[in-house]
Amino acid sequence: MRRKLRPPLPQRHGLDPARLRLPVEGSWATLRDHLVERLPRVAPERIDVMLAEGRIYDLNGPVAPDAAFAPGTSVWFHRDLPEEVPVPFDLRVVYRDDAILVVDKPHFLATIPRGKHVVQTALVRLRTELGLPHLTPAHRLDRVTAGLVLFVVDPALRGKYQTMFKDRLVHKEYEAIAPYRAELETPVVVRSRIVKEKGVITAQEVPGPVNAETRVELVQRVEGVERGERVELGERVDVCGGWGRYRLLPFTGRTHQLRLHMASLGVPIRNDDFYPVLREKPLDDFTDPLQLLAKVLAFTDPVTGASRRFVSSLSLSV
């Protein structure tokens, strides 16, 4: 097994530096020439500044602005961070030991850095606030979904816990608030094929072999709205006499599976800006959170063999 190189730069804001492997062949005279071609989204002037400030490293330290291109080597640097609006909600630690960390993630906070969300993510916050630079997520939760997320503290155990989720050995229960429909018979199991195309913000249900399955149970009818209030359900409008509190049990883990399946039943989750109709919402708008909560995680610990069950302390509103 090839030995993993240790980055010559420390973490910044809880993030490791990016590593760029240089090709073994090339006609570039300098490293700068290669970076300008390799990183088209970064302005050449910005690359010049990074080199002049000694922010691009190889294994020997900062690379000189006129350094020659060195085939087959690597360089490291920290990417420029996007401007982010602080998410004004706290992460709550549910459980922590030397192996794992379980937290309650609030609505609007992404699990891991991606796109416009970097520092304002659960992973970066936890690494910084708890002093755990090697913390990694065992799974992910949508930015707009609240609830339980399991992180791995010990890097040597990361594979065991991530594999547990990959192999569907974790019992998950979600709670959702959605319109009550008397004609909807529950419990019901929804089965469909869901696909998510790269670059498209929403997923879709399409014909073909089933790859997504969810059990939906009505737990309680909640009189959260006055009878006769009109609730938008896609292209039609239903007259709703209240809301329902639902328990959702996903047997698979496709992108936006629970949201799509609830919408397909005619009971889209309250405040869903994606399904059944896509509505644009500013990233700094923290009102009207999606009423979906990852309520329970239960599994047999792959390291100790102990039975684990965690329940979120968060709650949804009607």
Class per helix and strand makeup: alpha+beta
Helix count from the secondary structure assignment? 5
Query: Which residue ranges are poorly predicted, with pLDDT under 50 across at least 5 consecutive positions?
Result: 226-239
Roughly how much helix do the residues carry, as a percent range?
10-25%
Full CATH superfamily name of the largest domain: Pseudouridine synthase
Q: Determine and state the CATH class of the largest domain.
A: Alpha Beta
Record field, number of beta strands? 17
The helix/strand series, from N terminus to C terminus, equals EHHEEEEEHEEHEEEEEEEHEE
Report mean pLDDT, rounded to a whole number. Answer: 91
What is the count of distinct domains? 2
- The global form is elongated
How do the strands and helices of this protein lay out in sequence?
Elements: E1 18-21, H1 31-38, H2 44-52, E2 57-58, E3 61-62, E4 74-77, E5 92-96, E6 100-105, H3 122-130, E7 136-137, E8 146-152, H4 158-166, E9 171-179, E10 188-195, E11 204-206, E12 212-222, E13 229-233, E14 236-240, E15 243-250, H5 257-264, E16 292-300, E17 307-311
Pfam family, one: PseudoU_synth_2
Domain Pseudouridine synthase RsuA/RluA-like: 100-264
InterPro entries: PsdUridine_synth_cat_dom_sf (IPR020103), PsdUridine_synth_RluA-like_CS (IPR006224), PsdUridine_synth_RsuA/RluA (IPR006145), RluA_PseudoU_synthase (IPR050188)
